[in-house]
Amino acid sequence: MSNKPRQPLQETDRLFATERNPEDFRFDASVARVFPDMIRRSVPGYTTIIPMIEVITEQYVQAGSNCYDLGCSLGASTLAMRHGISFDDCSLVGVDNSQAMIERCEHYIALDDSSLPVSLRCEDIMDTELSNASVTTLNFTLQFVPPEQRAALLARIATATRPGGVLILSEKIRFESDEEQETQTRLHHEFKRANGYSDLEISQKRSAIEQVLIPESLNDHRTRLQQAGFDQVIVWYQCFNFVSMLAIKSAA
């Protein structure tokens, strides 16, 4: 009999399907159980972004370097990075401040067929020590960091990044134009409806998350990344109000 742990039970996201008291969104055990279904049905392009993280990692990873997935949740982007790393002397670190997420992530890491070791840390990414990095991922994580702390985090990542290294930053964004914001939001809600969410679920999830997920404009992100020390910022993917950027530190 195999000693590998069984895959964690994945449930359908019904957290907001019935009337509930307003409360802030938390990445607790109830969210961890439904997270794969929730993010697939809520984030347009997520199933494209994850495999492309592997492609980008393969292109930019450097021998003898560290790679970080900050805000790793259940480890989808961690595993993508793991399969993109071709050097045995690289270190891969996944960080999340939710113990429930880390516990389930450990199971997914154990079930994966790559032999590259992964170090998982349950801690605040603001406290994570960063050094000698070639690839770092913030996959829909920065938007949950208080806005006043974001510049400092990106500056630490840029300082820790080797010349020629990158940061993959995926975010929900807001738009400068009210008209575009309304259009993109409406299309995003239609995406959710097409994936089976009811109007009640969409409304309650929005109310729960709006105080903890603070989106910014694409220009805000680009300016901050450049001020942090990255030389080039490329939007490589966008679907409605969700984007993924590649921030590159020029080679010496």
Automatic annotation (TrEMBL):
Q: Name one GO biological process term.
A: tRNA wobble uridine modification
Q: What Pfam families does the entry give?
A: Methyltransf_25
Reactions the enzyme catalyzes: prephenate + S-adenosyl-L-methionine = carboxy-S-adenosyl-L-methionine + 3-phenylpyruvate + H2O
Sequence ranges assigned to domain Methyltransferase in this UniProt record: 69-165
The EC number(s) attached to this protein equal: 2.1.3.-
**GO MF term list:** carboxyl- or carbamoyltransferase activity; S-adenosyl-L-methionine binding
Superkingdom classification of source: Bacteria
Question: SUPFAM superfamilies in the record, alphabetically?
Answer: S-adenosyl-L-methionine-dependent methyltransferases (SSF53335)
Q: Which residues bind S-adenosyl-L-methionine?
A: Y46, G71, C72, S73, D96, N97, D124, I125, N139, R206
> Which keywords does this Swiss-Prot/TrEMBL entry list?
S-adenosyl-L-methionine, Transferase
Family as reported in the entry's similarity comment: Belongs to the class I-like SAM-binding methyltransferase superfamily. Cx-SAM synthase family.
PANTHER family the record matches: CARBOXY-S-ADENOSYL-L-METHIONINE SYNTHASE, TRANS-ACONITATE 2-METHYLTRANSFERASE-RELATED
Subunit structure comment from the entry: Homodimer.
What the protein does comes down to:
Catalyzes the conversion of S-adenosyl-L-methionine (SAM) to carboxy-S-adenosyl-L-methionine (Cx-SAM).
Please report the name of this protein according to its UniProt entry.
Carboxy-S-adenosyl-L-methionine synthase
Protein's organism: Marinobacter lipolyticus SM19
Query: Taxonomic lineage of this organism?
Result: Bacteria, Pseudomonadati, Pseudomonadota, Gammaproteobacteria, Pseudomonadales
